[in-house]
Amino acid sequence: MARPVVSFIIPVYNVAPWLKMCVESVQRQTLSQIEIILIDDGSTDESGKMCDDFALHDERIRVIHKKNEGQGVARNCGMDAAQGEYIAFVDSDDSILPRLAEDNVALARKHNAQFVVYGFQNQYTDNSGNILKIGEKFPPQLSGCVNRNEFWRSYKKVNHSFATMRIYSREFVMQNNIRFAPIKVGEDAYFLSCLSDAPFINVVFNQQIYYMYSIRPGSAMTSFQWEYFDERYEAFRDKGYEVIRHNEPEKGMYDDIISIRGIGYALEALKKLSFAKRQIPLAKRCSMIEKFCQNTQIAESLAMCKREWIGERWKWISVVLLKKGRYRAALIYCDALQSIRQARNAGMKAKANFIKESAK
User: Fold this and answer.
1) Average pLDDT, whole number, for the chain?
2) Is the Cβ–Cβ distance between 120 and 205 less than 8 Å?
3) Are 10 and 26 in contact (CB under 8 A)?
4) Long-range contacts of 57-63 (CB under 8 A, 24+ apart)
5) Which of 260, 291, 257 is nearest to 273 (CA)?
6) Which of these, 172, 177, 210, 329, has the minimum number of CB atoms within 10 Å of its CB?
7) 285/328 Cα distance (integer angstroms)
8) Which parts of the chain are beta strand (E)?
9) 8 A C-beta contact, residue 97 and residue 211
10) CA distance 202 to 115
11) What are the angstrom distances between the C-alpha of 230 and each of 180, 233, 313?
12) At 271, which helix (H) or strand (E)?
């Protein structure tokens, strides 16, 4: 097989209900010169066997089986094995549109860009892999080709999103040692901080939607992880602040961005603790969120927060409670919101099942 143009790197861990949807979406790329690297990260369900079955029927697919070390390590493993001119990451419960590779490789080549950022759209799925609802679209705020100086001048409009919403020059990434942190939460933020700090020439922002981002029960975005509260991970989170300080065109120009990032971490911690309301007693969760918010940068971010920085009302209410040190009230409030969301998702699932049964 000729050298692939794009290597799609897909970490796989216990995602049997969603894996077929994901892999088939990559196989349907209009650019045929691709390779698909499936990294079985120690799955204990049928995912590992499914990877091997996919490889038997498509020579473009390679499978790497390894012990479970988290998505960041799995993606690094995939990068080391990749042979393509470009690399792209796809989460194993997500899917992509057919022209992702063809369109964005063309833009990267046309503009000598080291990476291309494209849009994504939310899709809500249940535990069986069924799509319940298609959600909001998130195109990049910027458009077209910008150089490194313009990138940092326009940093407030940079769509940080996730590492999966980009295609990258493999040579550039490898030469600059841009890696994912060896952690199980927050690995995307660390990778993108390293990418923003690297000496790229151009980046293209493509406002078309190519990536379908799944929101599902039990995913990293909708579940609790102890690692998020481990002090060892603070250094990886702090990398983002350091990169912004190092690259901001004028000192203090992006104080608000740094604060908003810190607020985002605090809200994510609060949300994750809400997911653990049946696992961890309220008193323990209160002490955990209090300790998290005592981190110097988090505390400064909460203190500086302004209403106009926060979009959704529930987020602002949560921030106000955290600023005032009312941790118990903040958790009870988020617990209530979580119960409402769960009830709403159950209703969507019941409606989807009714429609499915009625169509038979």
Assistant:
1) 90
2) no
3) yes
4) 58/27, 59/1, 60/1, 60/4, 60/27, 60/34, 60/35, 60/36, 61/23, 61/35, 61/36, 61/37, 62/35, 62/36, 62/37, 62/38, 63/37, 63/38, 63/39
5) 291
6) 177
7) 8
8) 6-12, 34-41, 61-66, 86-89, 95-96, 115-125, 131-138, 144-147, 166-169, 202-215
9) yes
10) 8
11) 18, 6, 29
12) helix 255-275
Length of the chain: 360
Rounded Cα gap, residues 285 and 253, in angstroms:
35
Tell which residue, 345, 354, 358, 360, has the closest CA to residue 127: 345
**Residues of the chain with pLDDT > 70: what percent?**
92
Q: How sure is the predictor about 342, in pLDDT bands with cuts at 50, 70 and 90?
A: low
Two tokens, residue 224: 């609790």
Residues 6+ apart with CB under 8 A from 105: 5, 6, 31, 85, 86, 167
Q: Is the separation of the CB atoms in 163 and 192 below 8 Å?
A: yes
Query: What DSSP line would sit under 272-308, residue for residue?
Result: HHHHTTTTS-HHHHHHHHHHHHTSHHHHHHHHH--GG
pTM (2 decimals)? Answer: 0.83
Beta strand 144-147 with 95-96 is: unpaired
85, 6 contact by CB (below 8 A): yes
Tell me which residue of 268, 272, 270, 255 sits closest to 306, measured CA to CA.
255
Task: Count Cβ atoms below 10 Å from residue 328 Cβ, excluding itself.
Answer: 15
SS (H, E, C) 202-248: EEEEEEEEEEEEEECCCCHHHCCCHHHHCHHHHHHHHHHHHHHHHHC
Least confident of 88-97, 114-123, 229-238, 303-312: 229-238
pLDDT tens digits along 100-130: 999 999 999 999 999 999 999 999 888 777 8
Q: Average pLDDT of 336-354?
A: 68
3-class secondary-structure state, position 167: strand
> Average of pLDDT values for 309-328?
93
